[in-house]
Design goal:
mainly alpha
Length: 114
């Protein structure tokens, strides 16, 4: 793995953690709930970003579809993590979707794609 890839993985993870944990904090999540958000993102962000980097490096068509699929898988996986804490996340699917929409949309803005 190249230094550029490691940097891309690290920056993506740090931004995602900052955005999603910040949004969760703004939504009133504290303590265990914030740690759960961080854990969910530690589990989903690196594989999703790595898949896109590998796809892009291979020069394969359909990166947009791969990215959308990776994001949907991340939403589902994170919602399942949140579901283990129903007291902290009563609407785990909606919460996961909204956090991922916020971080993905912010990423698009940063990259200047929208």
């Amino acid at each position: 793995m190249t230094e550029a890839w490691m940097k891309a993985l690290g920056v993506s993870l740090l931004l995602t953690l900052a955005i999603e944990c910040g949004a969760a904090w703004a939504a009133g999540k504290r303590g265990r709930a914030l740690r759960t958000v961080a854990l969910a993102n530690l589990l989903t962000n690196p594989p999703a970003v790595l898949a896109v980097l590998l796809w892009r490096n291979a020069g394969l068509p359909g990166e947009t579809f791969l990215t959308a699929g990776a994001e949907l898988l991340a939403v589902a996986a994170e919602a399942l993590v949140y579901r283990t804490r129903p007291g902290d996340f009563p609407h785990c699917w909606r919460f996961s979707f909204l956090l991922n929409l916020l971080s993905f949309g912010t990423g698009l803005l940063i990259r200047g794609l929208i």
